[in-house]
What does this fold into?
Amino acid sequence: MNRKKGFQTKSGDPQKLGQILQRALKQRNILLHFKDQHLWDAWHKAVGKTISAQTRVDRLDRDTLFVKVSSSAWMQQLQFVKREILDKLNEILGKESVRNIFFSIGEVSAVQKKKDDPPSFKLDQHLLKDRDKKLIEECTASISDRELNEILKRAMTRNIIRRKMENRRKSP
It folds into this structure.
């Protein structure tokens, strides 16, 4: 059986599609954060506006929720109420899918967008250069699932535009 290099683990087992995509995007310096909207909504309900503004759900890995926190002071305070947050979160989710929360200091955006917010990247698509569009097409060309293809195109577009907007703000 002739498999393409990079699609197998060292033991010869096939890799998960998500691992392959993340590695390919990382090689092209395209960072994506896949978020489960349902999990974000549950987090927001469990902790409220104040804590939500200082935190960002990063990922759920097995039964541990990884959360980025804006500062060490917030991280310490959240350690004191971790058990209560876990209980409330699992109550909202309707099952005990989160058994631990791991807090780490990281970038927390000032405004977390809800899934109902209109995608702002459409307004700024003029910022994409032809080479950006070509890169997006090349990266997604081999993905036959139309829905996944479109999702990745939107995510890559948002990421490129966000980086350009940040660079504009930093420039004098």
About this structure: The longest strand covers residues 55-61.
